[in-house]
Structure formats: C-alpha cells, structure tokens
Amino acid sequence: MKRSITRLLMAPSVIMLLVWMIIPLSMTIYFSTIRYNLLYPGQNNFVGWMNFEFFITDPGFIPAVSNTLILLLSVLIITVVVGVMLSALIDKPFFGQGIVRVLLISPFFIMPTVNALIWKNMMMNPVYGIFAWISESLGFEPIDWLSSYPLMSVIIMVSWQWLPFAILVFVTALQSQDTEQKEAAQMDGATGWHIFRYLTIPHLARPIAVVVMIETIFLLAVFAEIFVSTGGGPGYDSTNLAYLIYNQALLQYDVGVASAGGLFAVLLANIVAIFLIRAVGKNLTV
Amino acid sequence: MTYLAITDLQKHYDNYHALRGINLSISEGEFVVFVGPSGCGKSTLLRTIAGLESSTGGSIDLDGRDITEVASSKRDLAMVFQSYALYPHMTVADNLSFALRLAKVSDAEIKDKVRSVSASLQLDALLERKPKELSGGQRQRVAIGRAIVRQPKVFLFDEPLSNLDAALRVQMRLELARLHKKLGTTMIYVTHDQVEAMTLADRVVILNAGQIEQVGTPLELYRQPNSRFVAEFIGTPKMNLIPANRIVRNEDTLSIDLLGQQIPFPANRLKGPLPDSVVIGIRPEHMSLVETDGDLTGRIELVEHLGSEAYAHLQLSSDQTIIIKAPARTELKDGQEVNIKIDVSEIILFNESDRVISVIPEEA
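Predict the joint structure of the above. Result:
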C-alpha cells in the first residue's frame, strides 16, 4: 500500500525524465536510419546503416575523433595538474587571498562564446593580440595562433574556462584536510613536498575523480569555442565530433548523417566514461 | 641533570598573551604532565615545544642544543595527537614506518622496527588495515606506535585519551605508564583530567592563565598546594574552603575562629605574617562525622553512595555547603543534624590573596 503510493507520487517526475530522454533519443535513432536531407524534402526512405557509413567514411571523421580525445585529455590534464598546484598555493593564508581567489574563479562566469572572442581578438590575434605584442617586444615573429596551432589554441581557451572549476573544487577539498595530520607529518620529519605528495594528493583523489568526470561530460561536447574562433579549421585541424555533427546537419543539411554522428558521439562518450570510471572512479569508493 | 630546559618562554597571539614567561626544566626519563583548565595555555606550551607554534620570546634547549628556532621536523620529538592524526589512506604498517621511510632507513631495519613496535602494542594482526577499519583504542595504539618507532628524545602527548570511552581510557592510561617504565624515554603529557595527571606523572605542572602555578610530584601538589587555585584543581571531590574570621595568637598556638568554634592551630606551621582573616582548606577525607564533641555542626543535604565510599553534602550554619567523605555503609539520612570533627593537622590556610600560608607537619 505504502509502496504503491510512493511510486505513484514519484511517477510524474520519472515519466517526465523518461520522456525527456527517450523522445530525442528515439527520434535521433529514427533519423539516423532514413535518408533525411533538407535539400531533398519528401525523400525520406529507409536507408539502414548508410548514414553511419557516410559519417564514418567522411574525411573529417578520423581527425574529429582524435581531436575530441586530444582536447579532452589535454584539458583534463592541464586543469587537474595546474588546478591542484594553484589550489595548494593559495591554501595558506596570505595578504589579498580573497581577491586572488575571486580572480582565479572568475573565468568560470564568462560564457564560452565570450571566452573564445576574448582569446581570439585580445590574446591570440597576430596583429594586436597580447601574445603577438609579447613576442614582438622580445624580437620574435608574432605567431598566428588560430591558424598555426588551431587545436592548441582551443585547448588553451577551454583550459582557461575550466581551470576555475577545478580550483573551486580543490580549494574546498583542501580546507577539509585535517591540520593535525599535517602537523603529525611535520613531526615525522616530512617537508612541505612530502606532505603535498603523501597527504594532500591522496586527500585530493576523490575531488580529482569528481572534476575529471564532470569535465569529461562537458568537454566531449565543446562547440562554442571552436565555432567562434577557428571554425573547425584550417581543414579539419580543430574540428571535434560536436563540430563535425553541426557541420553535417547545418552546413550540408544532412540530418540523417548528423543523427548517425550524434549516436556515434553517445557511443564514444560511453567508452570514454567506462575508461575514466575504471581509472579514477575507484577513488570514489575509498 | 636538565634534559629539556624552557627559559622565559613567551607566546603572543595578535592580541592575546598565551604564555607569560614559562620556566621549566625537565630531566631525562621524566614523565611530566601539564594540567590546567581549558585556555590555560597547556596545549600551546606543548605545541611550542613541538615547534608547531613559534615562540615570541624565551628559549627551549633540548639535550644541550637550542631548538627554539629549529623546525619541528628536526627537533627529534614525536607527538601523539588528540585526534590521533593517522594518515587515512595508508595501512597501519605504512603509518608506523612513514617517518622511517622519510629518513631513508633501510627496508630491513624498517621491517624490524615495525615488527617489534607492533608486537609490543598488539598491532600485529592489524598491520594491513587502514585507520578507518580500526576501533578508537586501536587507532590510539597506532598513534603511539608511530611515535615510538622513531625512538625520539621526547614524547609529546596532546590529550591523547580524551577521545576514548571511560573504560578504555583507564586501560590506555595503564598501558602508557607501563610503556614509560619500559622505554624510560622523557614524556610530556597534556591533559585537563587531573586523575590522569595524578596517576601518570612523575611531576605535574599546573598551568593557569599562561603561567606555571606550581610544579611538583602529584602528592606534593595534593598535600602542599601553593595556592587556592592548585588546592581546588587537584582532588575529587574538591577541597572544602571555609572562610574563618579571626585568628588569635596564644603563645605557640593559633586559635582560629571558625563559625563560632575555636580551632587550635600550631603556630610553627604558619609561614609569613599573620593575616586578619583566613580561609581554611580541608579535604573531604580529613573530616569525620562524630557523635559528640565536633568542631562544626551541619545538616545533611544529600548523600552520594559510590559503593566503596559515600560523600555527604552538608550545609553549615553559615549556609555554606561542604563535602565530607563517609564510610560506605553509612546510615546517614537527609536532613539529619550531625557533628563534624576536623583533622587539624591536615588544615591548609589561605590568606586574602589566595596564597597558602601554612606548611604541612612533618610526617610522624
């Protein structure tokens, strides 16, 4: 009796969630199996696996998958490593700590589009960007970042965007680290490095796992930064899966292939998630 | 021979003077307990000795070496913390060997030392466990083992037993006493529990408001306190303090006027000048209930039966309440009027500024 009432009360939200998920998913699956090009309306015949074949054999496919993975791993490594170091650095009280923390967190509040514009026009522009000015004043040729190192440029932008998130999580975690443990280690003859290596890093294992998982979800679908800055180019040099799908759907008007790509992205996300959970998820149970 | 010498040690926080000139010398192998009410500076003093707090004046010398400015990792001291502060992600064995591994001791020696320490603390079966899989008492033993394994010059204990339940605390107290006997290492122990102080210490240091109030063996402090603070702090139940108005000197006897009764007090037990009024201190076990011929009379308010003994709370004619130790199977009833006999030889006199002005008689 009681259980059925609970189920009844939960039902609306569960059904809502299911509908929310299942309708887009089933429509995507459906679109991926028919011919669905906006240039040829009305010719929506069933084509089986053909959309998938088109997507996988697309010249942009291999670069897009590898770019997606490179982007994901690079940003993860940069945000976790730099994030841990910066958080450890600002953990001890110092003059102006509050302001420094706010400054470190603030990039997170800037929307991806604006972020990309800032980097594209103010930092990396070969004529009036800050990087160009720095290299010129040191007597070097300015680098046109977006065309010479397009993927690295995107990695820098996205890392800048996500570093604050990592810092936010790590700073909070560091505040919960037991001071008596650090003092005990001090008495045991540990240097600052020893304490960092043997106490702080293990203490941060769980927050690191959380940061990696959450960032993975968002980094697999980076789009705005690429769209605004490099436009996926030159060639396919900075095209990732999300951008390739956009390319198929809205530049080539082929919804069928784009849907197939979307399903492939779901598959890739799951594969990555399984590996990441294997690698870092076991820390969650500690 | 002084092993650890603390000279005029000062500690200022921003606007708080935590240690106000501590002078103390500790011999090698001594078990010294710092005791005092919360906020008296006992933990600060220990942490300053450990080097976890920096002093703002004075010096600390250990074994002929000035360690005032030395980093705590180089002081050759080991500390047991109240929260145990075990490294949570390391096994017991790793916790025990952490300091040795940092000191680059050879694997064979580490193994040897860990084995002998774990055997002496009955941790053998737990070596592969993580701290969270241990009970409170086991964690405590690991924390002690982690200190022992390094063979430091001095052990520092910061209220190590206060997180344990009462039964375990008694047991660990005994183990600590045994450990000190076996190792013979100098130990400094901070507690707010005067029972721990009395049972463990060779010497007790009583701190009050950042200063040392008195240093002495437990019995000295109990029998001959310097001040009202020490007299009240040591002993359960507390010493009874009864204000007496006039003292009259007749030859070599003083006559103290205690609520209308004249109590004789040998004049040679008085040190210093004779004040106008005094407070009499007398411990519950130094008074007895008598049929007739008592020094005081009182009415019983309440009797606490502890099994082995009983404590009678009495109200005196001045409305003051005192506690008297009574035999276990006392027939006392609430509200009963009784006569109280005071053991004059155990009386301690305090002057108006709460200092003791009497000496205890030589043991017969």
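Chain A has 13 helices and no strands.
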